Amino acid sequence: MARTPAPGTRERILGVASRLFYDHGVRAVGMNRIITEAGTGKNLLYQHFPAKSDLVAAYLEGARERRAEAARRVLEDAGDDPREQLVAMVAEVATTVRHPRFRGCAFRNYLAEFPEDSGEPGSDDGTAPAAVAHAQLAETRAAIAERVARLDVADPDRLVEQLWLIVDGLYLQAAYRDRLDDRLDPAADAAVDLARRLVGA
């Protein structure tokens, strides 16, 4: 007879897996390590997450929820001006990448680690890891495009691309730079200043 999972078992497994996946990469972390560190039996883990891809997708969904909440807060604080909202979005990323434990964007990290996982619409039910990662990046870019569309600029597509390159650059730089690199703060500040100039805020 299958054991009934204790309350919080799923959250404990997911918390341990999320930490390990983020710190070490998805490919490097096996299910046995997660079982050991979560202190749960193999059967209980597979009861909640039948395959590793289910656990990875749940990890990315959790990261997606946290990013959505962070974006909601900064946009709320920025008021109704789309220029200020765009600057706030870049500034929030600049703040995020300065965190001592920051190891890159979870979604970009996954897609770089598994380039063969296309996450194409229709290839699965939309909950596979690559589908979650692609959806997050598409939604973030769409949020930028939505605000740029409210500005009176000659080439909105170009402005979206410029702002997206700033965001990508912030994530990329912080992923490989030493946390003690004292040039990281000025680089993040420069990104925010550039965004402000581009949108005319």
From TrEMBL:
Coiled coil: none annotated. Residues 30-49 bind DNA. Pfam families: TetR_N (PF00440). Residues 7-67 form the HTH tetR-type domain. InterPro entries: Homeodomain-like_sf, HTH-type_TetR-like_transc_reg, HTH_TetR, Tet_transcr_reg_TetR-rel_C_sf. Keywords: DNA-binding. This is TetR/AcrR family transcriptional regulator. It comes from Actinomycetospora endophytica. The lineage of its organism: Bacteria, Bacillati, Actinomycetota, Actinomycetes, Pseudonocardiales.
